[in-house]
Write the structure tokens for this entry.
Amino acid sequence: MRVFICHEGFRELFDISPHFTVGALKEMVKDSFLVTLSSDEQIRQYLELNYGGAALQDSWALCDIGIRSGSTIRCLIKSEARPKMHVFNTVTGETLPIVGNECLLHTSVAKLKTIVSVQSGLPVSTFWLSTAAGVQLYDCNWLKDYGIEMGTILCLKMWDGWLEFLQDCLRGNRFTVQKHLSEEKPVLRFQLQVALYIAASSGHLDLASWLLERGASAEEPVGVHPYRQWCQQTAHPDTRR
């Protein structure tokens, strides 16, 4: 089949197989338009093929995503900042890229936890950060106090007994979340607020509705565990939001 590729004001015709992958088409586009992608320690450039307003993934076959003969595909050169560090999320098994400038390495642990909370969807009071050697990072300290440098991989860890509860909250299944709820009212209250935060962040409307019926409040902050013993320092400011 024949498709048109538009790049920087030029429009060129390509004869390809319908079973071509996006990745294979990218290689043809690079050679045809003589695309050069720069890469350094700060910025990475990459090629993006866009069809119908959506970015196409390299592994997709053209025939599987509705591209037919005569279709027009846009070719764009995109840039992204390279991560300064990564955080391995032990709850999901994912590695979160932390992007920023050099100033990020001179920020506080509390600020980094805020960034990680936004990316992971977990409240700051449900996890702590550690180095690869297992050294816990306290909110009141600075990253430079632990000798953290560019490229460092930190770990997101949760408190004992909370792994399955947080995983079930992220999945949004109220029946499995219910199994983990405590019979102690102070702990139960905290769990409901944590689950509501995650449900709202992940878009689990059924779970959120059920939690509100159980007494969780969207107007109250998550707060900290009522029996907190792991840190005697002042609570993270985000726990009051």
Summary: The longest strand covers residues 72-81. The mean pLDDT is 89.
